[in-house]
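Running co-folding for alpha-L-arabinofuranose.
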Amino acid sequence: MKQATLIMDRDYVIGQVDPRVYGSFIEHLGRAVYGGIYQPGHPTANADGFRKDVIDLVRKLGISVVRYPGGNFVSGFNWEDSIGPVDQRPKKLDLAWFTTETNEVGLHEFDRWAKATDTQVMYAVNLGTRGPDAARNVVEYANHPSGSYWSDLRIRNGAKDPFNIKLWCLGNEMDGPWQMGHRTATEYGRVACEAGKLMKWTDPSIELVACGSSGSDMPTFGSWEYEMLSECYNEIDYVSLHRYYKNPTGDTANFLASTMDLDAFIKAVVSVCDAVGSKKRAKKKLHLSFDEWNVWYHSAEQDQEVWKRGKWNRALPLLEDVYNFEDALLVGAMLITFLNNADRVKIACMAQLVNVIAPIMTNDNGGAWVQTIFYPLMHASRYGRGTALRPIVHSPVYDTKDFEEVPVVSSAATMAEDGSVTLFAVNRDLKEDVELTADLRAFGKMKISEHILLHHDDVHAVNTEADPDQVKPVAGPGGVMDGGHLTVKLPALSWNVIRLTKAE
Ligand code: AHR
């Protein structure tokens, strides 16, 4: 058995965990909205046509904030199409996903769904085919109490109270040539600055997220952030990061090491933000919104087949990745990376939530079930609250095709207000268990209240509607607390949540 040690102290503080780091994303894409969250006529549908089985799973997952309505979709979207009487809303071609958008679900409906799921809306405006005028109008519509054209229209459309959307994305992936209205960094920085200015003049209480790079592998990564922030640093509050990982060659060791790239990506964006801030002599520090992250590759071929069968249908079954056990391990390691950067990463949205690269799946003619990646997010959201502490870990390391000196044990820790501590750990070793010894003397007398374990002997094991419990958490082997030292076994290839509470 391999050995690892860890030391923690209540004073090794990284930062407060912002609950919005447990966010997700619903785009008008595939069966996320139609057949996912919304399906009037389904046996579980509520009066608004939203599936109650899905609402219950979203609540179980513990999502704080949901980014909406895109994604690539938003860059061709007219928000006005999504308000007013449903039967009068236009059907439009969505050039992002080659689908027809019926606009049956729009701003009012989504606000009601967010209330039903106890989540906040993070609303994206179109800075692709549109600009500052449409952006400030939707803020007025959503947030101004009354007495203006757009706020009174909202009231006439049935919402007396403002939606009070606090978090707004200034477009989506504007660095990507696939984006409708793709711009250069300076062009985007200018439009983000002007749109952001008008949006904050309309409602000074809102916060704004500017588009960073669509991935650390973009050729413009770094210069994009620098040039765009040179234009809009003062107007915005967060820079977005997006990152999806894949394992098409079946190299599990390399795949699970992808968080080395994730951590470097976060640190690089922080550096550029601070460089621009210093150059501008800014007092304000920018934070990060990792508003798209996940594993995404399983559905690539299937999507080509779906489009071959016919574009422009409503709710084409796109991006329906079936996640396996190793994907859940990487998702857990990604959450650990966010916690270890809690001082700067304040928002993170698993992309996406239902049916589209999602932890929750539905059958139009049946039920809903959860994929493997559901569990680490649920655990982190439930127990990873309070203060993020920095565990000093001494772990064996390994090398892979793309990474060197990858720690076998990846871990993060949080301390709640009542002094209880949660340790999250992934053992990336393909074969060997690790005995982890943690020095917790700084916390006084503690006891292990729970060890949750996610493990499967087959990294390719999946959950399906017919067999939904192939991969699910179980009680772990636990461990021993002795003189402030915890000893616990982390099985090979496992996600572990070790919850510690005061002994008396
Ligand atoms: O989440 C799926 C897509 O990935 C989003 O629409 C886009 O922003 C990203 O490229």
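Result summary
The longest helix spans residues 259-279.
The chain has a mean pLDDT of 97.
Job closed.
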